[in-house]
Design goal:
single chain; binds protoporphyrin IX containing FE
């Protein structure tokens, strides 16, 4: 898997970086890309999972709904009194699990900024940006978890306007709340199940609203799919086995510390086996 990841990373580098010469790729170069994937991949997923633990404890309704979704989706495992397998967790549709993971990624401030350097003189929302300027964007700020800054429509680029047609917008009043339901939409009645359970009639909608957690474009996160896989598996198994309860306020604050990632200072919960 690591070898495949290194090859994928190098292949992409030859596409997106003008400084990277494919002919210069040697085993040593492969070794140089490895730490980037390990550091980029290890701390980020681990930190997001720390936030997940807090979201579970602080949102008992969402936690209970997620547990019902898991029991429904992996009904055979539940009936047989065993853990769901990796194949069951990754291959079975579980829209509320997808929604829970996506909402955790949206709200967790794991990597709160991304930076782009202008390689030519350009304009962003009507403001001139000279070549060489670093432009800092918040992944966990306005438009994502709190109300956006008003922008005159004519200042937006054509591609930005087109994106607004594809992706929904979050409601200013509720966007700060942890609400996995925001990522669900009703299925077409022709495709909805027979209504045997509460999740039959809904599906996950990745275009519900804006999210920049994994960056965007050719330099967007290389490990996004792996991150979803890890968070999905660990969250499903945690919720399958334990109930998470909030600790007293002094042990549950949302204060964060910035090391490689932005992680919670207090990540304590009470656990009960279920
Ligand atoms: C929840 C987990 C993760 C988060 C929040 C995250 C977030 C990000 C962000 C914001 C960027 C910068 C994107 C941009 O500038 O547009 C990035 C880049 C990157 N990520 Fe992740 N990441 C996660 C997991 C992973 C994993 C599991 C891997 C390992 C395979 C990984 C490997 C990388 C690499 C190699 C880059 C640099 C891409 C480039 O410069 O071309 N990430 N990530």
């Amino acid at each position: 898997m690591i070898r495949a990841s290194r090859h994928g990373s190098l292949r992409r580098e030859t596409r997106v970086s003008p400084f990277f010469q494919p002919r210069a790729v040697r085993p040593r170069r492969h070794a140089l890309t490895l730490p980037r994937s390990l550091v980029g991949g290890h701390d980020t997923s681990g930190t997001t999972l720390s936030w997940v633990v807090k979201f579970l404890a602080d949102n008992p309704h969402a936690q209970a709904t997620l547990r019902r979704q898991l029991r429904t989706a992996y009904a055979a495992a539940h009936a047989e009194g065993r853990q769901p397998s990796v194949v069951e967790i990754t291959k079975t549709s579980a829209p509320y699990l997808d929604a829970f993971v996506e909402e955790s990624a949206r709200v967790a401030p794991t990597l709160p900024i991304i930076i782009r350097e202008a390689v030519v003189d350009t304009t962003v929302l009507g403001k001139p940006i000279p070549k060489g300027t670093s432009v800092v964007m918040y992944t966990n700020g306005p438009s994502y978890v709190f109300p956006g800054v008003p922008v005159a429509e004519e200042l937006r680029s054509e591609s930005s306007r087109a994106a607004r047609q594809r992706v929904g917008v979050w409601d200013d009043e509720t966007m700060a709340r942890f609400t996995p339901e925001r990522w669900l939409k009703n299925k077409d009645p022709a495709e909805a199940g027979g209504g045997a359970n509460e999740f039959d009639s809904v599906e996950f909608d990745a275009q519900s609203g804006p999210m920049l957690t994994f960056g965007a474009g050719p330099r967007g996160c290389f490990g996004r799919r792996l991150a979803y896989l890890e968070i999905r598996l660990v969250t499903a198994l945690l919720v399958w086995n334990f109930e998470f309860e909030k600790c007293p306020e002094a042990l549950s604050s949302y204060n964060a510390k910035d090391i490689l990632t932005t992680m919670p200072r207090k990540c304590f919960v009470k656990l009960r086996r279920v």
